[in-house]
Amino acid sequence: MSSVTFETQRTALADVVAIPVTPFAEDGTVDQGAHRALLRRLLDGGITTLTPNGNTGEFYALTPEERRLVTELTMDEVGDRAVVLVGVGHDIPTAVASAEHARAAGAQMVMVHQPVHPYVSQGGWVDYHRAIAEAVPELGVVPYIRNAQISGARLAELADDCPNVIGVKYAVPDAARFAAFARDAGLDRFVWVAGLAEPYAPSYFSAGATGFTSGLVNVAPAVSLNMIEALRSGDFPAAMKVWEQIRRFEELRAANGSADNVTVVKEALASLGLCRRDVRAPSRLLPEDERAEVASIAAGWSI
């Protein structure tokens, strides 16, 4: 294991980490043609890191067969144009099988969704991730942390056992907590990805993040790239100009406990003629009055 440095994967995480949507056809199945076209649009737009089966891809609403299909479609379409980290999760055997499938398909990394369980102990969190990481030692592993109870010391403990745990998608909406967590875990030991996308990227970058996830990037890749360029150069005023540009769109996504997080992105894509607006329960379509506002924002970005 010591010979594997994961440098390519580390570099890929320190970037805009796109979370592609999963478009659905009229009959409710995955729209493979639209999916490929959206991936090509991201790649042609300059995006080089992709997470199929992420939350913007409606991970929890997909069947196991659909998750495998999304992984295979992504790997086939991307080829060597981007680094792919496949979202995996659910129970340990399912997550391990998904990680092994991702490896077989040619992915370089997996992102481990937060354990969905009402009772998560810190030690059990380590055990869960260890079981997955040890099954695919050749892949970079990126825990997705949404649980404010997990401590930085536990992440360090996990990485002591599993050197392929190389980055973290940190999605607790608290910049001070993130700063402390990263330093407790080892600021330089991991690549820190701001897991709450563009709205939190400036504050998280100021505390040590070097990448951020994005669902908005499906709609306007150039907007997300403008933000990361500003952040990389330390130009926070320029980054905040982008922040102001995307604020309303992201507020619509975040409203009511992020009820319309994916819905707003798909509505914007539908307004541009790129895929159907359909989402699966427990998400729901936007009311008519909000559709026009989303379309107006998306049209403004595409000029």
How would you characterize the overall build of this protein?
This is Dihydrodipicolinate synthase family protein. One of its GO terms (molecular function) is 4-hydroxy-tetrahydrodipicolinate synthase activity. It is an enzyme of class 4 (lyase). Keywords: Lyase. Its EC number is 4.1.3.3, 4.2.1.41, 4.3.3.7. The chain is an alpha/beta fold and about 300 residues long. It is built from twelve helices and eight strands. The chain has helices at about 5-15, 30-45, 65-80, 90-105, 120-135, 150-160, 175-185, 200-205, 220-230, 235-260, 260-270, 290-300, and strands spanning about 15-20, 50, 85-90, 110, 140-145, 165-170, 190-195, 210-215. It has an eight-stranded parallel sheet, with helices on both faces. Helix 2 (about 30-45) crosses helix 3, helix 9 (about 220-230) crosses helix 10 and helix 11 (about 260-270) crosses helix 12. The model has no long low-confidence stretch (mean pLDDT about 95).
What key phrases describe this protein's structure?
303 residues; alpha/beta; eight-stranded parallel beta sheet; 50% helix; globular
Concise overview:
The protein is an alpha/beta fold and 303 residues long. It has helices at residues 7-13, 32-44, 64-78, 92-105, 122-135, 152-161, 175-185, 201-206, 221-232, 236-258, 261-271, 288-301, and strands at residues 16-18, 49-50, 83-88, 109-112, 140-145, 167-170, 191-194, 211-214. The chain has an 8-stranded parallel beta sheet with strand order 1-8-7-6-5-4-3-2, sandwiched between helices.
